[in-house]
Amino acid sequence: MAVECAVIAGIFLLMSVIFWRRHRIQWVWATLPLMLVPLSYFVTISVISHLMDVDVNVLAVVVVLIAAVGISCVWLGFVSNGFKSKKTRVSYITIANLFNIALALILSVNVLQHAPENITQLV
Question: What is the largest CA-CA distance in the chain?
Fold first, then answer.
């Protein structure tokens, strides 16, 4: 799942670059929080456990995902204040938070179902 999360984060990063090049700075900031959950999973699993050879506890991965969802929700709230329409603000917050929560839930269930003694066996 680490590779899939890297791809998801990469897609959101490319969207942010496209918005930046089109001078849609508000949409850049609106897209970046969606990258936080997949990027945190990728960094925890691939970078910390594989590249740095650190044994990561399964519970630590779940806590990182919960923290990423929390930070992303707050970030989304701040970004949504830039939208003029209340309908746009509410739909953006709802859809983006549902995406982050659903992704974190899927990743957490995957980590807990395939909980090896050592997290480096997940990739």
Answer: 50
Whose tokens are 């919960």? That residue is 66
Contacts of residue 91, defined as CB under 8 A and 6 or more positions apart, other chains included, come to none
Both tokens assigned to 62: 């779940």
Task: Render pLDDT for 30-57 as a digit per residue (tens, 0 to 9).
Answer: 999 999 999 999 998 888 877 777 777 8
In the numeric block, the tokens 């680490």 are attached to: 2
What does DSSP assign to residue 5?
H
Report the C-alpha gap between 76 and 92 in whole angstroms: 8
CA distance 32 to 61: 21
Burial class (CB in 10 A: 0-12, 13-18, 19+), 115: middle
> How many separate domains does the chain show?
1
Q: What amino acid occupies position 27?
A: W
Mean pLDDT, the chain, integer: 89
pLDDT tens for 87-102 read: 999 999 999 999 999 9
Give the C-alpha separation, 92 to 110, whole Å.
27
The residue segments making up the domain with residue 103 are 2-122
